[in-house]
Amino acid sequence: GGAALGIANLLVRALQAEGLTVQEASVIVGGLLATAQVTKKRIIDNTYLFVGAGGAALGIANLLVRALQAEGLTVQEARDKIWVVDVKGLIVQSRMNELDQNQKKLC
Predict the structure, then answer these.
(1) Are 60 and 24 in contact (CB under 8 A)?
(2) What digits encode the pLDDT tens for the residues 14-42?
(3) 33 in helix, strand or coil?
(4) pLDDT at 2
């Protein structure tokens, strides 16, 4: 619907601002929208897991936070729906001293 298209446009523009091509951004957005369609849930009704905590994964996770906010969640509510795993396990607050600034945002 119209809301999904608005979120898709927001994400594509934001991903492009992060340096991704239109094609790369479209694949990511398409995956999120397909997931919502298959599960019959809005993007705010899902929990997301990122395997890997590098720049690309964190960039996409932060853009997802923005998309979830656009759907009505607070920043913290959006972040609570996103889990990130790195080589040492789940990124959680008890690991704050070993995380970089971008990783800390998602705790």
Answers:
(1) no
(2) 767 767 677 776 777 778 778 888 888 88
(3) helix
(4) 62
Distance CA 74, CA 30 (A): 24
Give the helix/strand (H/E) hosting 72: none
- Residues with Cβ < 8 Å from 22, sequence gap 6 or more? 12, 16
Contact 45, 32 (CB under 8 A): no
The number of CA neighbours under 13 Å toward the Cβ of 51 is 0
Q: Which residues of the chain have pLDDT under 50?
A: none
- Tell me how far apart the alpha carbons of residues 56 and 100 are, in angstroms, rounded to a whole number: 14
